[in-house]
Write a structure and sequence with these properties.
Number of strands: 26
Oligomer: single chain
Strand order of the largest sheet: 3-2-1-7-19
Mean pLDDT: 93
Low-confidence stretches: 407-411
Strand content: 25-35%
Structural class: alpha/beta
Largest sheet: 5 strands, parallel
Helix content: 10-25%
């Protein structure tokens, strides 16, 4: 296909790229939109991979259905080999090239590996894509022994699913606590206790020293029986293609608050991008499903010449399902002060994260009604009375209303 000045090529078929394609199908139905995705699978969603799909292998659980994709030229199994920004062309793995008027990198990220384990005697898995989930699932049966290296969200979600299957699970985390990057200390403590009550074992502040045919040996000499290892040590943004094309990159493709890279008519969204955040006065890379969708909507508006606001104006948000726990985190979980609203022992509560007299973040455990109002208060950036917010008798919905601003002003 030969592109025109108005044609758009999206490199990457994850939730960011496909959400953008869906938005463009609605807003610019007459424009040519091509999505290049190197995986051969039909569109799928990643969040269920560590939960529903790993549990029962149901393909419907991961199917990604977005409006208008039937009107988009989605080329599965086709990889972009190189981008020539000056010639406005993309070299394809199938031969030939595409020209474009505008191009969007939505190349995502890849799971971080531990090269020292690759030659080990035990199977070593990661969990990023559908093929990864299938490989890991083949090792998880009742009684199998899973060692997870990494105590972040993915590691804990897989731990919960594996225990539900009946596998024995041990989590090894190099840092002193779980969720060091994405959760507050109170959440770390709560989730560790929740997992331990269900039989998960933890080794915190420890790393792997060696691997044998049936065990993982830690740096303190502890030997953990194992049949399979999952490396859940974070991700690396896929920036190589953009960097080779001349785009500025630094732990992500650097973009402004509307998703524009340093190259004309070339944009980036999703896990591969590191977007400018005006409030923090720096570039921030977000690895959440929600932010990918928000960035796709912003870039779609910008590509269509419509007025739009920065995606970073909305508080960051992610969720996690572990056992019967619905964990939702909005804004920053790293405040100066954490207060609990509710009873942690009851399994339904919120943690309020405060800094500089404002609510900067909130973590809700089985408390979705709290979170909706707390997100509005975070976004308002109003000074707050922390004790009022933490009081269960306080009507958060009323306080979140702009008409009630004085009710949460610091006395």
């Amino acid at each position: 296909m030969t592109g025109t000045d108005s044609s758009i090529v999206i490199v990457g078929g994850g939730v960011a790229g496909l959400s953008l394609a869906s938005e463009l199908a609605a807003r610019a139905p007459d424009r040519s939109v091509v999505v290049l995705q190197d995986e051969p699978h039909a569109a799928y969603d990643r969040p269920p991979l560590s939960k529903a799909y790993l549990l029962d292998g149901d393909a419907d659980a991961v199917a990604l259905s977005l409006p208008g994709l039937d009107r988009v030229d989605i080329r599965s199994g086709v990889r972009a080999e190189a981008v020539d920004a000056e010639a406005r062309s993309v070299a394809l793995s199938t031969g030939g090239s595409l020209t474009f008027g505008q191009l969007v990198f939505a190349t995502g990220a890849r799971a971080r590996s531990l090269p020292s384990l690759t030659a080990g005697a035990l199977p070593v898995c990661v969990l990023r894509g559908l093929d990864d989930a299938r490989a890991l699932r083949s090792h998880l049966v009742a009684g199998s022994r899973l060692v997870i290296l990494g105590g972040g969200i993915i590691g804990l979600e897989v731990a919960a699913t594996a225990r539900t299957i009946g596998a024995q699970v041990t989590v090894v985390e190099a840092l002193p606590r779980l969720l060091s990057r994405s959760g507050c200390p109170l959440l770390s403590i709560f989730l560790r206790e929740a997992h331990e009550q269900r039989g998960v074992k933890f080794h915190l502040g420890r790393t792997v020293s060696s691997v044998t045919a049936n065990s993982v040996v830690l740096d303190d000499g502890a030997r953990i029986p194992a049949d399979v290892i999952l490396v859940a040590a974070g991700v690396i943004p896929n920036t190589e293609l953009a960097a080779a094309a001349g785009a500025a990159c630094d732990n992500g493709i650097l973009v402004d608050d509307l998703g524009r890279t340093s190259l004309p008519d070339i944009w980036a969204i999703g896990d591969c991008s590191r977007a400018w955040c005006e409030e923090q006065r720096t570039h921030v890379r977000s690895e959440t499903w929600t932010r990918a969708r928000e960035q796709a909507a912003v870039v779609a508006m910008a590509l269509c010449g419509l007025p739009t606001a920065s995606a970073s104006e909305a508080p960051a948000y992610y969720w996690s399902d572990q056992y019967d726990l619905k964990i939702q985190v909005a804004g920053s979980p790293m405040g100066d002060l954490d207060l609990v609203r509710g009873d942690m022992s009851a399994g339904s509560f919120s943690i309020l994260h405060l800094a500089g007299g404002r609510l900067v973040g909130a973590t809700a455990i089985n408390a979705p009604r709290d979170l909706g109002s707390l997100k509005k208060i975070i976004r308002s950036r109003r000074p707050v009375d922390a004790e009022v917010l933490a009081d269960l008798s306080t009507d958060l919905k009323a306080l979140a209303s702009p008409k009630s601003a004085n009710a949460v002003l610091t006395a």
